[in-house]
Amino acid sequence: MALGLRSITGEPVIDRENGEELMRVQPGVDIALANLPRESPGTLYITTKQVIWVSDVDKSKGYAVDFLSISLHAVSRDPEAYSVPCLYTQIETEADEDLNSDNSDSEESTQVHDLSIVREMRLIPSDPTQLDSLFQVFCECAELNPDQNNEEQEEEHHDWIFSADQMEDAGAASNQ
Q1: Which residues of 92-126 are buried (b: 16+ CB within 10 A; e: fewer)?
Q2: In terms of pTM, does the model score above 0.85?
Q3: Are 112 and 62 in contact (CB under 8 A)?
């Protein structure tokens, strides 16, 4: 996913015309993608539509993922799962894409990677006491972006549920 335009300071420009709002900015966050080496330091931007990480060392480097692509998020404090406390996420993947693909706009000198091809992402704040509040913001934004396929499946599922009155009416009709 391309971040689109960035301001002079290197921060992502939020698409406010389409209802996107900035929910949280968290400086001092490292990122670990799949089995790649941990990258640090960076600034995490959480909007109502996406999660964006921008390197503090190289402002032209960043990652972005839509909330619709995040299938799971959780706080991880288990040192056997990962060496430091982090916000763990699983991202739905597209198997035929290459992790090293470059999705930068020709007008932009910014290199942005599409995280929809990464299966796991860990966000590691320099202050681990921020994990619970980051998790809460993730929860709020995930609720703002329900999976449309799940809603359709739930609606179909509800077609199979009948009330007791409907069952009695159907039974009476078949006995006549």
Answers
A1: ebeeeeeeeeeeeeeeeebebbbbbbbebbbbbbe
A2: no
A3: yes
> What residue ranges define each of the domains in the chain, with the CATH number in brackets?
16-146 (2.30.29.30)
Contact 115, 93 (CB under 8 A): no
At position 126, the amino acid (one-letter code) is S
Rg (CA), the chain: 21
Q: What is the largest CA-CA distance in the chain?
A: 79
User: Is the sign of the CA dihedral 118, 111, 47, 21 positive or negative?
Assistant: negative
Q: What is the pLDDT of residues 71-122, one digit of tens each?
A: 999 999 999 999 999 999 999 876 534 444 444 444 444 555 555 566 899 9
